[in-house]
Amino acid sequence: MVIDNHLMPDGEAPYDDWADLYDKVYAYLNYDIGFYLSQAEASAGPVLELGCGTGRIALSLADAGFSVTGVDISPRMIAKANGKAATLGLGSKAQFIAGDMVDFDAGGGFGLVCFPFRSFQSMLEVEDQREALENAAAQLREGGLLALDTFAPDMEQLGDRRDEAIPFHIRDVEQPNGGNIVVWGQNLWDGLSQVNSARLIVEELDANGLSVARHFRDFDLRYTFRYEMEHLLELSGFTLEAVYGDFDGGEVTEQSDDLVWIARKTS
Ligand SMILES: C[S@@+](CC[C@H](N)C(=O)[O-])C[C@H]1O[C@@H](n2cnc3c(N)ncnc32)[C@H](O)[C@@H]1O
Q1: Do 148 and 158 fall within a single domain?
Q2: Quick one: 40 and 102 in the same domain?
Q3: CA–CA distance, 6 with 17 (Å, rounded to integer)
Q4: Within a 10 A sphere around the Cβ of 24, how many other Cβ atoms?
Q5: Is residue 22 part of a domain?
Q6: Looking at ligand 1, which residue's alpha carbon is closest to its atom 11?
Q7: Is residue 147 part of a domain?
Q8: What pLDDT is recorded for position 203?
Q9: Model confidence pLDDT, tens digit, residues 177-224
Q10: Who lines ligand 1 at CB under 6 A?
Q11: Are residues 148 and 52 located together in one domain of the fold?
Q12: 3-class DSSP assignment, residue 62
């Protein structure tokens, strides 16, 4: 069995080491695509995705006919996304560029800027959060839309797992080749900075159920509470249009896992 124990060294592009693993671990993830597609339609595009990863959302929007620019700080994620765009014949609709969401200038004039699948939570300091949102506003044309989703902070899940030695099972993800990926997690929550240091343990099983590789990946996410986020949006040049507790427009409740945000650039 391969043990791939890559714990992110300081200074490395976050997620660079996820590039080969990301699409396998998130093979189940499609429940948010309809939401981002509906926002692209409402805005009429073009679309800028900040923190686009391997192009999961951007390529779906390009496939629906939108012109999409994807930006990610990880050159390896960007290489994956460009490779997928070429394979899918979407190279003329989707372009992927390495850059930092806090200051990347994609030329402006976008109808929609989005941060799908919690990419905004990679902003670990308030200043970075502000700069990323202000940059999003600068990239939008007048009246343009912002759409993003964040984890709804679940203090029970975060707080109780502090320093937990035994990883908790997150999910099994079936693979197209008949194998399985089993994902385990550990959280270290720092209530002062609102940053959760997460470790995912990703076990690859072949079609016979034999373990062939185990990957360890660390990453940090800053959690933002509902009303704090509302203030951040307003301070950064947006007018809140809606916050939902899921991707189908459900209300925010104690049980919500996600906060799904729509805001408009303030004129
Ligand atoms: C959880 S992934 C989400 C990827 C994609 N949006 C999706 O829906 O599958 C977060 C992405 O944000 C990127 N990221 C983190 N910090 C960033 C930054 N400062 N600027 C641009 N991208 C960043 C990571 O490299 C990673 O690919």
Answers
A1: no
A2: yes
A3: 8
A4: 16
A5: no
A6: 51
A7: yes
A8: 95
A9: 899 999 999 888 898 999 999 889 999 999 999 999 999 999 999 999
A10: 14-15, 50-53, 56-57, 71-74, 77, 100-102, 116-119, 122
A11: yes
A12: helix
Pocket test for ligand 1, best of 12, 68, 105, 122 (most atoms within 8 A of CB): 122
Same domain, 124 and 229: yes
Ligand 1 atom with the shortest distance to the CA of 118: 1
CA of 50 to the centre of ligand 1 (A): 7
* Domain match, 241 and 121 both: yes
Q: Residue 144: which CATH number?
A: 3.40.50.150
Is 140 found in the same domain as 59? yes
Smallest Cα–Cα separation from 160: which of 133, 192, 186, 139? 186
Q: Give every CB contact of residue 23 below 8 A, 6+ residues apart in sequence.
A: 54, 56, 80
Where is 150: in which H helix or E strand?
Answer: strand 140-151
Residue pLDDT, tens place only, 52-83: 999 999 999 999 999 999 999 999 999 999 99
Q: Whose CA is nearest to atom 10 of ligand 1?
A: 119
Residues 194 and 106 in one domain: no
**Number of residues written out for the chain:** 267
In a domain, 37, yes or no: yes
Q: What distance in angstroms lies between residue 53's CA and the mean position of ligand 1's atoms?
A: 5
Domain count, the chain: 2
Range of the domain at 79: 31-152+224-265
Residues 253 and 146 in one domain: yes
8, 12, 15, best to mutate for ligand 1 pocket (most atoms within 8 Å of CB): 15
Instruction: Classify residue 199 by burial, with Cβ atoms within 10 Å: 0-12, 13-18, 19+.
Output: middle
Amino acid at 20: D
Q: 207: CA distance to ligand 1 center in Å?
A: 31
